Amino acid sequence: MSTPQPPMPQTAAPDRQAAPGAPYSAPGAAYPGYTSPIPVVRTHLGHAIASEWTKIKSVRSTMWTLGVFALLVLGIGLLTGLVVESSDPDLGGESPLSLGFFGLLLGAMCVITLGVLTTASEYGTGMIRTTMVACPSRGRVLAAKALVFFLIAFAVTLVCATLTGFLHVGLLEGHNGKEPSGEEWLKGTVGVSLYLALLGTLSLAVGSMIRHSAGAITIMIGAVLAPLVIALFMFSSSLQDVQQALFEYSIPNQMSIFYANSLSDSGPSGWDPLWIMLVATGAALGGAFALLEKRDV
Amino acid sequence: MIELEGLTKRYGEKVAVNNLTFAVRPGIVTGFLGPNGAGKSTTMRMILGLDRPTAGDVRIDGTHYDRLKDPLTSIGALLEAKGVHPGRSAYHHLLCLAQSNGIPARRVHEVLDTVGLSAVARKKAKGFSLGMGQRLGIAAALLGDPRILMFDEPVNGLDPEGIHWIRTLMKSLAAQGRTVFVSSHLMSEMALTADHLVVIGQGRLLADTSMAEFIQRNSRSYVRVRSPERERLLDVLHGAGITAVENGNGTLEVDGSKAEHIGELAARHQLVLHELSPQQASLEEAFMRLTAESVEYHAHSDTPASAERWGDGWKEGRA
Fold it and tell me: ipTM score here?
């Protein structure tokens, strides 16, 4: 050891002759032994958050997924903007912000992947045991992971969505587009960023429950795409209501609501998608917490 | 101090750990010995709160692991599997652990230095050899300068120099008054490091004794005798009421007689002896005898057909 050690405690002499019945000393008896010069700190959530922040930024997969995310959102945003602009369109009073939707929809895959990896990859590598030994409060670990991930996902999405928004508004000036109102700006940037960050946090909770990266990513991508695909094959008129609901409540449609006030008369509108996702994420985190407490690591 | 009381873990029908009660005391190295699959790792995971016991209780200095305010400064553990994200550098791996317990970042450099990984601190863990991975795990265990240290099979994958290093390390940690609990399936390894022994087989406690007592109680001493006049030697020994066992390659093994006695006997009968040597059965043999009935994965070479049920001998011995 390179730390200066205090003098050997009196109890250091090997106690070979201790009677077999001796180990259970009277309650309250001080436990003798080594005393470290390192100050004892009562650990709290702040420590766990610092730890998770170091973890998430010290692996390359984080940088990769976030890099691809930014590339998709900004790249596709730029492309759609240029294509629409070159065709000299008439936006018919629509807000140009809605063009940002396509990039963010694809970017959602990256957010889902990163969310799942934040929890599930620790099970794949065995790191989870190290983590849980360092922080035996399992709920605290989950909370720290969710919080750190949510903030990163929100910040990155906000920057990308805002940049694309400015890009589109700038590119499509004078094409009979509507000047976006304050609320439209808010929904198209903060709103959709909160939605994506929550979707990622939902994935994080699913990753913690499934404990398998590939499995959890598949489930989440399925959850995003399956309702639309299933609805496509509902030809029977008796299923029309179900088909309609699947369309309306599918994640891509809910995301589009942040850009335009509801495509249909029924279904979620305004800020509804955010509240729906908030409830779903809360429920998933609750489930993940319950399973974490119940299962062995 | 680690105290286990009636600790039990069941996976469905299978009992991995069965009613373990013992204590690991400070100031000495306690060896935790058992064949593969005996339940050593499961026991260690329960001590660390990773697995919930089916029954019983385990306390660290009187507290449950998940109630510890400062887990890493109370107990540091090296678990069997690597437990490291392969894409993270050794430095960041230790840093995130230090942060989770409010341990100053300079400790990371100190422990990296202690285990000799400073030069590769910024390298990703996936490039590490088995031995380097083991050293990183030991660094993580030492990070909080804890009162209690637990090592699961620490010498796995280490080269002779590394093995020597960890032996010395464990002894010096214990000499500082810390509790050191180390598992192994190698008796020979334990004989060199441990002061106290806890032996388990199929999840049950087989022995909880000091090393010296274990050696004394479990090792068989005998005298090996070799002579060109084997038949006459046997007659002479028989005449003196000494039983000798032939062990196949022309030598005899005599239990319960001193070499001097046999030598004098042979001299009196003018017998030529080519070898007369007192022998001590190795601890490895003693350990194998102790756990023979409780080895889970036998290599079926010479398993006696009428093998008694495991644990029978143990019960009788204890009764």
Answer: 0.84
